[in-house]
Amino acid sequence: MAPLSAIALSLTVLSPAAATPPNIPSASTAQTELNTLTVASEGSMTGYSRDLFPHWITISGTCNTRETVLKRDGTNVVVDGSCYPTSGSWYSPYDGATWYAASDVDIDHVVPLAEAWRSGASSWTTSKRQSFANDLSYPQLIAVTDNVNQAKGDQDPSTWQPSRTTYRCTYAKMWVHVKYHWGLKVQSSEKSALQSMINTC
Fold first, then answer.
1. What is the DSSP letter of 104?
2. 2-6, 158-162, 175-179: which range is least confident on average?
């Protein structure tokens, strides 16, 4: 039995730590929340600017939101005096890639800022939008491959989903929980896509 446990231990050590934002709900909770979201056509982009969602803000000491998520989602992350990660590794659950330089990693807003704007955030105060853009309490921020995040842009799940199909259940649960917590609307095509993704859980 000892060799088996040694093998199990080595597998545990070798498997990459996936980025795990907090408060990802169960599939049943996500389903309940999806059922209660208001379905409406998307609002206008008129007046939108990323500057209306101030980020990244200082979280603790010299660490801003981005650096805080890099530390949370990475493995063996070492930071310098200004909180910049000098070493570590980051496994991107969207595409299954592992990166060893923080510059290769973006912090994705699971519900993009522009998507939030079209879904109700246009009427929020700047203070509330800042809280949304730096939300570390709900599954709204995740460290992923930079060009994957850029390809996603401001798309909702009806037009963009993680290439790793095994992660789509988790992605849908995160998306729904963020929209539910922040009182944002969904459009019908988005709701259908989210339902299909939850069905894979």
1. G
2. 2-6
